[in-house]
Every structure is written in structure tokens, then in C-alpha cells.
Amino acid sequence: MYRSLIKIKGKTINSMRFYLFLRILFIGCLFYSCQNRSVAPSLAQTGDTLSYHKKMVDEHSNYFLKGEDKLDTTYFRASYPVFDEAKINDLVSSIVHLEGDTSMEEAAHRFINAYNEYVDDNNGKSTATWNRDLRVDVVANTPMYLAIRTKQEEYTGGAHGDHVTLYSNFDRQSNSPITIDDIIRKEDKDKFITIAEQCFRKQEGLHKDDTLNGKYFFEGGKFSLADNFTFEKNELLFYYNIYEIKSYAEGGTELRIPYTTFKDLMSEKGLHYINSIN
């Protein structure tokens, strides 16, 4: 059922609940603004080799959805790193701006405007508000490589929202993306996949000959690596997002492969990457 919306355009609305909501919203914005100013000037974390600060964008729709005991609104929120070096910002642009926007402000405006147009097309009515939360974090920053995690949660109607986690790794010498082929010697790639499958089966409680068909979405029932991975202190982490190998209800899957199980298969460059962590 559609619910009526209150649109804020300088119009006086006689509602004590609505004024109370606006006061709470105003205080919340002041608090958020203070937090934003405190975060912006900060430099890279201890041990980092690149300087950056975190930037935040927070934008709301002018449409408010009135429920039985609250008012809600569509919003866009983002937190992401801005590096001192322009070439690094260019390098990570595609993983900060997932939909090709030139700025986070542009992404926010486009998202909010899409919702506003949807409401306008429905004569000022909507069944639900939308939201997008985007968080981009530097998870490793060594002289050898830069690793970034992008997490986005979004709801634009329907039974449930969408969420995705992406890991991106860049070689600091060449400023190029790091792939698994940079880490594992080409002639040992099949051996590594076998080790990874053994780890996966152990994690999932599967025997050696148990099928990967049915519950899992591996093509042809054959195990495969996710392209989505990053380095941790003691393991290589592979992350499968929802629908890649399991249903939405089961969520994403983390698969960790200890370095000790495949160190003999690593390229010289791969060894340099993990040694720069420890």
C-alpha cells in the first residue's frame, strides 16, 4: 500500500511529531558534521606509506515517508579515502566510484534524484524509502602494495537489498592491479587451485568426493577461485559475494588459504608482497 509523503520546500506543516523529528535530525546533522570535520584532516594510519584522509558524503531526499510512529527518508552515505597523490586517486577511482561517476557528490545527487523522480511519477506516493551506504577503506598500505576494500549496501525496493564487498590490490612499483597470476607461478596454478579446494571442502564440511552441484553455484560443479581476494597477515583471503557460489540467504563466503600451504608455489613477487606485511 502506498503511503503519503511530506515534501519539504519551505512549507509550514502543523505536526508536533514532524517538528520533533526535524529537531532530532538537525542535532544529528550537527553531530555528524563535527565528526566529519574531525576525520577529514587525519593522515594515513601508523605504518602506512601513503598519506590520505577520509572524506564523507551524506545526502537526503526532501521526501519524507510518514509511518505510524516515525518519519523516514531516502539517503546516500559514503566514506572513502582521498590520497595526497593525484595519481593514486586516479588509480583507485573505479573502485571508489562503482558506477562510473566523476565524484561522490555526483553519485549522491544521481541516487537521490532517481528516488525523487520515482515519487513524482507516482503522484507523491511511495511504498518505501531507498538507501545506499558505501564504505571504502585502506586495509593494507605497504611499500610493495596497496589494498582497498569497498563495501556497499543498497536498498531500492523489493524483497531485500543488495550488498557487495570488493577487494582491490595494486602493485606500488608499477601502479597496476595485482592478479593471482602475479602471486602464483604459472606452472603451479593447478596445484594451488587443488589446495584451495581442499581448504574450501574442509571449511564447508565436505568430503573429497562430495558433489559441488546443488547447494553451490560453481559452473559445472567444478571448484573455482574468486577473482576477489586480498592479503592478510597469515592467509590469502578470497571472498565470494552473494549469488556467486551460494544463495542470497547464505550470504557471502570467505575462504582463507594459509601461506604455509602454498609458499613453495609462490612467485618471487608474491613472496615480496606477503613479506612486506610481516
UniProtKB/TrEMBL annotation:
PROSITE patterns in the record: PROKAR_LIPOPROTEIN (PS51257)
Residue ranges of every copy of the DUF3298 domain listed in the record: 181-259
InterPro entries linked: DUF3298, PdaC, PdaC/RsiV-like_sf
Domain Deacetylase PdaC stretches: 70-161
Family matches, as Pfam families: DUF3298, PdaC
Protein's UniProt name: DUF3298 domain-containing protein
Organism (species): Sphingobacterium puteale
Taxonomic classification: Bacteria, Pseudomonadati, Bacteroidota, Sphingobacteriia, Sphingobacteriales
